[in-house]
Amino acid sequence: MKRKDRPARDLAPTKGTDDLARRAQARLDEGDLEGALVLYERALAESPHDLKVLNNLACVYVRSGRLAEAEGIFRDATRAQPENPSLWNNLGFVQMQKGENGKAIRSFRVALRHNPRDLEALLNLGMAQGLAKRHGQALETLLAARDLSPGSAEVANSLGCAYRHLGRLEEAVEAFKTAIARNPVDVEARNNLACTYRALDRTEEALDVLEQAEVLDPGNEVVHYNLGMLHASLRHRREALAHLQRYLALNETGPYADDVRGLVRQLEGAAHR
């Protein structure tokens, strides 16, 4: 498991646009993507060269899954403002979402060339490097992020992922523990810590961490998947079935859904033998 995808960074609307942009941002804050999209497109029609409106419209495209349209806007915006690090960061984010990690790495490096202290761009660069299996480079990037923000739970969690990919599991454990200490409600870090404990055959500690995560977020599909798989490995049939069925109820089309359905059938069959 990797840390959650970060949304593309929004920029505040300019004063030169009418209240359409402000209303669009309000819709976006309420989670109404379609309403925000309509209003931003209207704002853009009135101010077609306003880069901040363009940027925010592209961010809505990202959140709506319309990545090709978002990338086109960010490319045009970086040509118009080639020294704007936020635009390069957002372009890199879209490229990473598309699986174009090499391009994303280049874009994040441009963002950091213009603002070396951009923590978001550093974290995104570390993620892209990890996705490209450049784990040594990812660790170097994330250590720089730690130097920049030594108290960040997110940086600690990302560092833990980098250590784990490099096989440095004890260091990964310490990094995930640090992330949890800094943000006690961080379910993602608990999931990552539990997976690392499993890799170290520290099964009881993994189970304890996942049960804590379930208390914090009972509807987290990843927690139920990990609990189900852990209980299955321990031959706790009833508990495994409960968590795996809960995973399917939460996300029946998820990346592991077919495998989970197969395992559920096996566990159900074992109950009748």
Provide a short characterization of the protein structure.
This protein has 273 residues and is an all-alpha fold. It contains 15 helices and no strands.
Give structural notes.
This protein has 273 residues and is an all-alpha fold. Among the domains are: 1-128, Alpha Horseshoe (Serine Threonine Protein Phosphatase 5, Tetratricopeptide repeat); 218-273, no CATH class. 74% of the residues lie in helices and 0% in strands. The protein is built from 15 helices and no strands. The protein has helices at 19-29, 33-46, 51-63, 67-80, 85-97, 101-114, 119-131, 135-148, 153-165, 169-182, 187-199, 203-216, 221-233, 237-250, 257-271. The chain is globular, with a radius of gyration of 21 Å. The two termini are 35 Å apart. The model is unreliable at 1-7 (pLDDT under 50).
Layout of SSEs?
Layout: H1 19-29, H2 33-46, H3 51-63, H4 67-80, H5 85-97, H6 101-114, H7 119-131, H8 135-148, H9 153-165, H10 169-182, H11 187-199, H12 203-216, H13 221-233, H14 237-250, H15 257-271
Helix pairs in contact: 1-2, 2-3, 3-4, 4-5, 5-6, 5-7, 6-7, 7-8, 7-9, 8-9, 9-10, 9-11, 10-11, 11-12, 11-13, 12-13, 13-14, 14-15
Sheet with the most strands?
none
CATH fold assignment of the domain at 1-128: Serine Threonine Protein Phosphatase 5, Tetratricopeptide repeat
What do we call the CATH homologous superfamily of the domain at 1-128?
Tetratricopeptide repeat domain
What is the CATH top level name of the domain at 1-128? Mainly Alpha
Helix content: over 70%
Named CATH architecture of the domain at 1-128 = Alpha Horseshoe
User: Any low-confidence stretches, pLDDT <50, length ≥5?
Assistant: 1-7
Q: Report how far apart the termini are.
A: 35 Å
The secondary-structure class comes to mainly alpha
Instruction: Give the tally of β-strands.
Output: 0
